[in-house]
Amino acid sequence: MKQRIKSLLFSFRTKVTTVAILALLFVATLSNFFITKFSIDGQFQQMRHQMMLVAQMASLMVDGDALMRVPLNHDEGTRSPEYRSILAQFYRIKALDPTIKYLYTLRKTDKADVWQFAVDADPVLSAEMKQRVRKDFTAYPGDPYFVGRFPEITAALHGPTADPKITSDEWGVKLSSYAPVHDSSGAAVAVIGVDMDARDVYSAQQNIRRAALAVLLAGIMLSLALGVLLGGRMTRRIKILMEGTRKLSAGDLEYRVQVRGHDEITELSASFNQMAASLSESRKKLADYFFRMVQSLVRMLEAKDKYTQGHSERVGVYAHRTALKMGYPKEQADLLKLAGELHDIGKLAVHEQILTKSTKLTEEEWELIRQHPIIGAEALKPVCFDEIIMSAVYSHHERYDGGGYPQKIKGEQISIFAQIISVVDAYDAMTTDRPYRKALDKQVAIDEMKTHSGTQFNPIVVEAFIRILEEK
Questions:
Q1: CATH number of residue 359's parent domain
Q2: Which stretch of DSSP H or E encloses residue 386?
Q3: Which helix (H) or strand (E) holds 407?
Q4: Which domain holds residue 246?
Q5: Does any domain span residue 52?
Q6: Could you say which of 53, 78, 146, 335 has the lowest number of CB atoms within 10 Å?
């Protein structure tokens, strides 16, 4: 009996099965570790980019000259109209994005490491902190803040940035991003800070770890079953799973492993694909959240000007219907609708007085207007990977004859999706009231498009859009 057990333990089949089990356990553990690390790191970097974008967008909505006029003392500062105006703007921004915990501005002082608060949307400490510091210590205008602990704040005078890791100070543990606030001359005069509660970051990471642990446990159980039942076939299938692990670790969340059969390895592969699909869906949801946030900022921009309210939404609807009329797939038409809603996002960087000016613009003001497609594309670049949206935002003011901006390209050099936005954008502008003129009649606008077909506009797009207007 002992001899039989000894023979079984040291048999070639047992050795192969043992090696197969250990190898599969190693692969499952290693892949789980790298995928979890990649997911957590990737999610954290996406949060940093998202926070940087929020800080950059918020800084564009702050009047640097008004901020510099806020007196840096408690009483005068909080009573000044500039303080109240900026504070109201901050509250609107926070209402649009509930993940923002703190929103504030800091100004430099004579001491390099000590700056002063100007406007803070939440000048209140926690009860615990009130016990440790004097009770009247709050972030009111003029209150000092030691920025030497956080070099990213100083660096933010040169462009948007974010802390590379979770940090803590008197106000708690958080993830912070910063962006410069410019005055009318273009000089960086202050820094706007946006804080996200670290608990939100940890909660998202914990969800990934739970999912990874569940997958790991399932992988261990399946490894034991597979090692006993399939030993000899395991090597080939492990290579497939390893390839999948490398693809996911490299960021290809759309990659799926193909393993045929009706056994446990097939189930493990299905779990692998399901996890990859979940990660891909999470990334898409983050992108969707970003686009909704940008859409909210566009609506805030339009809300300041009664003449352009609803303009972006109408452009999106017109572009969607035109793309379908021209025979493009629904998926591309849906993306073009989103591009239409976002095409003027760059105007957030243009002063309101220029956008609503009722008299002729100066050449300097026109130059600022011409920059908005470039600014819009740059704002979307960190999280937008779709060529339809990027080309439509960047090139919707190019002309068919090459006389547009910013690149002065012409004809087929211009993305067809940008040409669609160009036509419907012009039509909506003509048929709505503007500060410098009343709305044109629908037929007059159609005649204008026909007149400029082949010069300003693509004739094929004009023809398709006019058919839509004539139908309804």
A1: 1.10.3210.10
A2: none
A3: none
A4: 2-42+206-283
A5: no
A6: 146
